[in-house]
Specification:
Radius of gyration of chain A: 16 Å
Distance between the termini of chain A: 34 Å
Oligomer: homodimer
Strand order of the largest sheet of chain A: 1-3-2
Order of helices and strands of chain A: HHEHHEEEEE
Strand content of chain A: 25-35%
Largest sheet of chain A: 3 strands, antiparallel
DNA sequence: AGTAAATTTGCAACAATGATGCAATATTTT
DNA sequence: AAAATATTGCATCATTGTTGCAAATTTACT
């Protein structure tokens, strides 16, 4: 697999086994992953700490982005190519299926702008929709 | 204070000190609170477990609702009066201030509907906007 | 009001999640 | 290939969330 190497090099990160494996998992799964998902799916389990640090690094570099949840389990998903360190462009809606529990990036659904009350200055917006996904309905 | 008693009775919950104190704190603070916020602000600290269980109960009864975050710290906020157990109507936008870190319910800002890809059935939506709030800007 | 039944609380113990320092290892640079 | 740099894994610890159970409180009943 060459793609993971490229992603790492583009972001000036050392190319290590752990990073490649975690990236491959993201590419393979398509959707969003929680820390726990990653640990479960790792064939020859990496150290827990390494997973934490890798995810942090990826977020900082803009390789993955965070998805808010109401269940104390942050999800992470790969960013589209136009994300730069500290400057994400992932203003798309996320979908969480009530049935299969998968979190899906709806890359083509843009978060609509909302009119805020006087005095509020928006900087960033997140939107999460729950319901039934394509596969479950 | 009579209001907290009423809220509890309306939801057929036993009227206990802990529940009243936590409700009063929500009424007092106005905004959203995390579990940690509640523990910090409790004059004669309640047991941690009691706080967890009380929040769970309140969510189940529709007295408070959850606000998703990307930092592993669920926030809770009082629901408007038209919420029933298992049947919330809190489809308003939440605002998190980057400066003072407060989470505010924008009760008058309704979450806009979005067009989902074919096959997706929406059930519920959450929207969180970050930026600067009235007090910080 | 007083008592029995039902509910809630607090404690103890535990599980899961996340963070940090440091030596060993792997990667990059020269 | 060796030196410099960066990453990993281990040990340890802090925080957060859960569960079982006895004691205490609240509610319902007479």
């Amino acid at each position: 697999m060459k793609k993971t190497i490229d992603i790492l090099k583009q972001n000036r990160l050392s190319v290590t086994d752990s990073r490649q494996k975690i990236l491959e998992l993201f590419l393979l799964m398509g959707g969003a992953l929680s820390h726990a998902d990653i640990e479960k799916n790792m064939p020859d389990s990496l150290d827990r700490v390494t997973v934490y640090r890798t995810l942090q690094t990826f977020v900082e570099k803009g390789i993955i982005h965070l998805i808010p949840t109401t269940d104390n389990s942050i999800k992470y998903a790969l960013c589209k190519n136009d994300c730069a360190p500290g400057h994400h462009h992932d203003n798309h809606v996320h979908f969480i299926c009530d049935e299969c529990e998968k979190t899906i990036c709806l890359d083509d659904v843009t978060i609509p702008a909302v009119k805020l009350p006087k005095g509020f200055t928006p900087q960033h917006a997140e939107m999460v929709v729950t319901g039934l996904c394509v596969d479950c309905k």
